[in-house]
Design a protein that fits this description.
- The structure holds two protein chains of two kinds.
- Chain A starts with 6 loop residues before the first helix and ends in a 19-residue tail after the last helix.
- In chain A, helix 1 runs antiparallel to helix 2 and helix 2 runs antiparallel to helix 3.
- Chain A is mainly α.
- Chain B is mostly helical.
- Chain B is elongated and about 50 Å long.
- The two termini of chain B are about 20 Å apart.
- The chains are: A mainly alpha, B mainly alpha.
- Chains A and B meet through helix 1 and helix 4 of A and helix 1, helix 4 and helix 7 of B.
Chain lengths: ~130, ~180
């Protein structure tokens, strides 16, 4: 498996990996040191959507990273609306919302605006036919 | 004409090397991001009772008189609004610093929020004043090192912004 060369795909890969490993926060149970509250269905949704971003990065399909970003944005809105209330479908809190905000913004902005060529990689130039 | 992309200064001779410096700056940025990210967890709508308790300390144990007046007469009577603004601001601080996007802007916003927190609780009992001084210094360091240029999205976007002449790109070059 090759690490993508374009900054766009590298960013999607890193953000996808962050989402993939984020259920690790479920292990931090102290009320004071939970970093990100990760409970219930979120433990499944974060890595699944993260995998979508990773597949998008490895196959250089920006549309998959955009879709992953949009799904995280939807989760962020649901979390913001339900945090501190009942029901709380995602089981998270303000820090879950903050992580979702980072993942959604990061994936949507990079898939849309990040360069598809690394600065070191020479970009193909438009060929100009010399006048004969 | 496009401006050259500025990076962090090269590592001094005898140092750990530029790449190591960048990793350490990125780790520092992500650590500060988690400071805000984690602490947006206990600001719970709709009553924001814990946040209200700490805000009331600004009145009970005043630090700066004009700030205390604002808290007493503007913030506390409209606390639901200020609670939501605090939650959104701190969650955004966590998100943007984690991404390393417009990092210098968010470092300044972090300085401002740290100042507000400091003026609320500095004189309260059982508070360690250096917590807030260190928070302030941490955001100064994020600004000084332009920490988003080290493995952050600022590093991804700056080459594109630097080649664009539009005002938004020029502004983002300054804020990143």
């Amino acid at each position: 498996m090759r690490i993508p060369e374009s900054p766009r795909d590298q960013a999607a890969l890193v953000l996808g990996l962050l989402a993939l490993i984020s259920p690790v926060f479920a292990l931090t149970t102290s009320s004071n040191n939970n970093f990100v509250k990760m409970e219930g269905i979120s433990i499944l949704l974060f890595p699944l959507i993260g995998l979508l971003a990773i597949v998008g990065a490895l196959t250089s399909r920006a549309v998959l990273a955009t879709a992953a970003g949009a799904l995280f944005a939807l989760m962020a809105l649901v979390q913001l609306a339900q945090f501190g209330r009942d029901p709380n479908w995602l089981g998270g809190s303000g820090n879950t919302f903050s992580l979702l905000l980072a993942l959604s913004l990061g994936l949507m902005l990079t898939s849309r605006f990040a360069p598809t060529h690394s600065p070191e990689t020479p970009q193909p130039r438009k060929s100009h036919t010399p006048h004969s | 004409m496009s401006r050259p992309t500025r990076s962090i200064p090269p590592a001094p001779p005898g140092g750990l090397g530029e790449r190591t410096d960048r990793w350490l700056i990125a780790a520092f940025r992500i650590g500060v991001a988690f400071l805000w990210l984690e602490n947006s967890g206990w600001k719970k709508p709709d009553d924001f009772s814990s946040l209200r308790h700490f805000t009331e300390l600004a009145v009970e144990y005043p630090v700066v008189t004009p700030f205390t007046w604002i808290v007493e007469n503007v913030v506390l009577p409209n606390f639901a609004f200020f609670g939501w603004m605090t939650l959104l601001l701190e969650a955004s601080l966590g998100a943007f610093l984690l991404l390393g996007l417009a990092t210098r802007l968010w470092a300044i916003i972090g300085l401002g929020q740290t100042l507000a927190i400091t003026m609320s609780v500095l004189n309260a009992p059982h508070e360690w004043e250096w917590s807030y001084y260190l928070m302030f210094l941490a955001h100064l360091a994020l600004f000084a090192t332009a920490a988003g240029r080290s493995f952050g999205l600022d590093a991804v976007f700056r080459p594109r912004w630097s080649q664009s002449d539009d005002r938004v790109s020029k502004l983002l070059m300054r804020l990143s």
